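User: Hey, quick favor. My workstation is busy. Could you predict this chain's structure for me?
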Amino acid sequence: MYQIIRRILFLFEPEKAHYFSMNLMKYFCAIPPIKWLIKSIYKTNYPVSFLGLKFINPVGLGAGFDKNAKYLNTLESLGFGFVEIGTVTPKAQDGNEKPRLFRLPQDKALINRMGFNNEGVNKISERLKEWRSKNPNTSLIIGGNIGKNKLTPNEDAWKDYEICFKKLYDEVDYFVVNVSSPNTPGLRALQEKDSLIKIFSVLQLHNQKQNKAKPILLKIAPDLSVEQVDEIISLTDEIKLDGLIVSNTTIERSNLRTHSNAIDSIGAGGLSGLPVKEKSTQLIDYIHTNTAGKLFIIGSGGIFTFEDANEKIKAGASLIQVWTGFIYEGPLIIKNIVRHLKK
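Assistant: No problem, here it is.
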């Protein structure tokens, strides 16, 4: 059924198709009998606990899909164990010029250069607060992916992360520091040692003052050198890092089936989906091995099937996130993965 729906959606510009389909699902999920039916179809139950949090299952949705926390009811109904909202920045921003999202069906991939388009932390935090008040018994874990505004210079980036951290603190269950998107100029430079120490020292200062500290993870790029990865590993104790999300999109364009002329016409952006699968899995395995399995990892990148998810878990991931796979495979991807994991 979804394959037919996908063919229709793929006739339209990707970003428009995304919002059309999600707004339609949001409308249906606002009708109690239909929401009950959807939940009964996609319901999954394979509880796991990590970082002091209880997840109804280990399959989550990566940041960038529900940037503004508008579709949480829908995503919960579809069976996700956790959803990462954002990337959220202090001020609202439009992101990069459109078109900025592109499909590569031959490669089961996407290229995006969205540029942290979001409504800003004040509006998003208010929406989350309202959602929690209406859903006090929700079992959905919410992650807050935070970043800096495009016009904020890197030397002041820590201020943007601090603003988002404080504003979202009561509304999310864990945080992700995003310094690895290729679509904000200069952002990936923040993966360097001094920048990470500055950002995390400020966040942890606030975090440790609370009655119960929130887990703070770092999302890294798959394009880091071995030396850069080793440096991040060496910092884990100093910055009190709770874990890593491995990985973000790649800027590489090698070994794609899509014709090079089409790739060149698309231009810059982060590549996600099947082409990044092996690269992210190898990075998970390297980090897991070199930390003796002591560093918590969420595996992301090229997950379409149970086999893909299992590769990430065998490599060292405790939880997994889908995004591009969700677009290509449809909502049953969660149930299919969880069903096989239970076996």
